[in-house]
Design a protein that fits this description.
The chain has one domain: Multidrug-efflux Transporter Regulator, Chain: A, Domain 2 (Orthogonal Bundle), CATH 1.10.1660. 50% of the residues lie in helices and 11% in strands. The protein is built from 3 helices and 3 strands; from the N terminus they run βααββα.
Length: 72
C-alpha cells in the first residue's frame, strides 16, 4: 500500500520538478487558454501558482489521443 499523500494542488516548482515542464511552458498554456484557471492551475491565497496533477494528466492524455487521431 502506498502511503504517499495525493494532493489536489501542488506549487508550480513541484510540478516542474516532477514533470520536467518549465514555468514558461505552464504560463504559455495559461495565456493560450489551453489550461483553465481553476481547473488545471490556480493562484493560491499566498500568490503562488498551483497546478492540479490530475488535470495535468488528463490534459497530457487528451493531447496524446488527439495526436493519434491525426496520424490515423
Amino acid at each position: 500500500m502506498d502511503d504517499t499523500p495525493t494532493y489536489r494542488w501542488v506549487k508550480l516548482a513541484k510540478h516542474c520538478d516532477a514533470t520536467g515542464d518549465t514555468p514558461n511552458a505552464v504560463h504559455a498554456r495559461r495565456r493560450k487558454r489551453q489550461w483553465q484557471d481553476g481547473v488545471h492551475c490556480r493562484v493560491g491565497p499566498d500568490g503562488n501558482l498551483y497546478v492540479c496533477p490530475q488535470e495535468y494528466n488528463k490534459w497530457v492524455e487528451s493531447q496524446q489521443q488527439n495526436s493519434e487521431s491525426l496520424a490515423a
